[in-house]
Amino acid sequence: MPDGINDIFSVLQADRISKSFGSVPVLFSVNMDVRPGEVHALIGENGAGKSTLMKILSGFHDPTSGRILFDGEEVVLPPNGGAEMLGIVLIHQELNLAEQMTVEENIFLGRELTKNGILDRQRMQAQVQEYLQDIGLDIAPTARISDLSIAEKQMVEIVKAISRNARVLIMDEPTAVLTEAETEVFFRQVTKLKEKGVAIVFVSHKLSEVKEISDRITILRDGQWIGTKEAGDMSLDAMAQMMVGRELSDLYPPMREADVDADRVLQVANLTAAGVKDVSFDLKRGEILGFSGLIGAGRTSVFEAICGLEPIISGTIHVNGAETRFASVAAARDAGIAYLTKDRKAKGLLLDKKMRPNLTLFSLPKFVKRFGLDIKSEDAALERAVRRFDIRARDPDISVGDMSGGNQQKLLLAKVMESEPQIVIIDEPTRGIDVGTKQQVYHFVTALAAEGVSVVVISSEMPEIIGLCHRVIVMRDGRTTGTLEGDGINETEIVRYAAGLKGEGLE
Amino acid sequence: MTLSTANTTAKGRSMKFDVKTAGPAIALILLCIIGFSLNPAFLSEGNLSNLLTRSAFIGIIAIGATFVITAGGIDLSVGSMAAAIAGVMIIIMNNAVDMLGTGVATVLLGCGCSILLGIGAGWINGVLTTKGKIEAFIVTLGTMGIYRSLVTYFADGGTLSLDFAIRGAYRPVYYDSFLGLPIPVWVFIVVSIVGWFLLNRTAFGRYCTAIGSNEGVAKYSAIKVDRVKTITYMIQGLCVSLATIIYVPRLGSASSSTGVLWELEAIAAVIIGGTVLKGGYGRIGGTILGALILTTIGNILNFTDLISNYLNGTMQGLIIIIAVWLQRGDWGKAKASKT
């Protein structure tokens, strides 16, 4: 067995697991094992088979071939979460908590303690209190789930798992929705669980986190097992390369020189809004301007305020030299400014609708002919967009929600570009999409800028900002702390501004 | 799946046979066959014309409700609103007799006021839900109580009667026919066509669907969500006022029992027709069929003594539950076969 997989020490082990859905194979003879008291990260691109493997390890899917060993013995895991009884708990990305119930009620959901047929609240609360203290979590057992932060909810899920005596905890992208501070708290809890001997499997796209928290790393690519390594032995680049299987240098198109004398199409001065304090910046024609900073630094809020999505408290905005303040998104759109949200599912696309109504929704007035919608020109627009953005749908009549993340993102881009904006703000352009699509998105952004469109890229992915932008503005706590240009754009500088070690706003 | 049906409606119904789309139509045909077999007079011209006229009230209101529900809202106040509008309309017309006489002018004044009142009442519902950020269910539950008590107050607990002198000029609106069809049916047809075009062929209709499907996406897609939602309530109000205008000459009076449970019948017609209660998908054609189905059930019970007429509500209730249950089952299958 490669890399020292040891039957005796593994609590849960996948042995040459293969899985096909219908005739489509998604996993090819994958090996993985988890030991008590270790954090084992599972990494790979979208579609590499991570989710499938996790679901097989927790009994939600059956393997097509191969064995699952639990405590060294071959088992067939009970389906539909029944593996929880064995101590194997999968925490889904979409948390499974009843929002309107309390922490205590959630933790004991389905196995409430009773005394003479009546709920024994006291005993349940006392037990929950104990669990919470154990893990060092400062929330009341009587707190309502809907009042908790996402990180706290996640911790409640974990407490729920522990209360069921979980020995193996499998988590699907637990940090995807957490801020950096919350992630830190989360990692502290994970460390505590580790000390208790719980085996933890976790999936993440954030490689630096993977490196920080895990003991071992298993890499999957296209359903193949690429390797399992000690985390200490791997650099971030090595991880990325094993995931992608090729050099990543061609990910970004060559940078076109920025035109220093280009007109300034957008000038923002002293903008203040909810979460935004005194922000000023300029945007030139054909420029790609990056906005970097930690999550919650106010980057999105700046542009939501500019585009009329959130009220402005004070400050001025000039578009093409004329002062404006957009009362609505429609007004911003008509002035040639479009904002592409990072929240594809809640703000970007109508998942239960098909591609056509989604594509034209943002610029629908364009498709009105004599009071009615011109369906023919909508269809023509869809055809154009599918070609231009390389949107691949199995069936043009498919609901958008059934399309892959990458194709959804391309459709969202197409939707916003349908309004032919002169300034486009793309928030997290590549969130949750695979490397191939990322590359397409980057080339598209660069091509747009070459055509004279000004692009703002808000991104938490440092390489993206560095590889794509002519100029980078760093924000922290609602303020701009620094501007980097040309060769000055590098990770260390951005981090120093973002973390508040350096910056204009410091006293 | 919702979309494939929307599309077949758009491209012409005959292109693809869709059980879910055809469901309400099949149900209506079945009801007609049952009605005919129980009593051949069911299909007589007189009965059919009576049936269509009666479905016009609920049908017109239900078309308004289709917009509200498609955009993710609900309006429980329509029945009370109809009663209040009828009451105010009668008071205005009675008082206008001295000035305008008992002719068409008074009737037109009454109708004009009715329309303004309807749109205004809808606007209040809309603004309270959007700007006031109160759930539509609560707002319209509140206005439902208010409008109902207002008509009781105006009628001083009794009945408001239209001046007999005016009835002569107003009567034809309910009792006359044009090209063989009663006037209320014509109003129903016109409202249906306009409603269908508005929902399926205009940007406004698309916006309603988008808002009902996902309000967040709608907001970020440059849709003025508050405005569109408010307009759906105003359309609802307008539809209520149109229904009231053709209803008043029927009895020539309004009381606290006018329009009772109309809101439930209207919502039922919408749901039976295949519009999704939580919004995001609406069908005007289905709503029309839904209204016809509800009226037909009552009509059949009136016509035969198989089941007591007092069980009309039971039959309607059963049909609603069965209709929604059938739709649900259908969707589950469609979803499963897709993935």
From TrEMBL, chain A:
It is a peripheral membrane protein. GO terms for molecular function: ATP binding; ATP hydrolysis activity. It is found in: Cell membrane. It comes from the Bacteria. Residues 12-247, 260-502 form the ABC transporter domain. Its EC number is 3.6.3.17. This is Xylose import ATP-binding protein XylG. It comes from Shimia thalassica.
UniProtKB/TrEMBL annotation, chain B:
It is found in: Cell membrane. One of its GO terms (cellular component) is plasma membrane. It comes from the Bacteria. GO terms for molecular function: transmembrane transporter activity. It is a multi-pass membrane protein. Keywords: Cell membrane, Membrane, Transmembrane, Transmembrane helix. The chain crosses the membrane at residues 21-39, 51-69, 76-97, 103-124, 136-155, 175-199, 230-248, 284-301, 307-326. The keyword Cell membrane applies. This is Ribose transport system permease protein RbsC. It comes from Shimia thalassica. The lineage of its organism: Bacteria, Pseudomonadati, Pseudomonadota, Alphaproteobacteria, Rhodobacterales. The gene is rbsC_1.
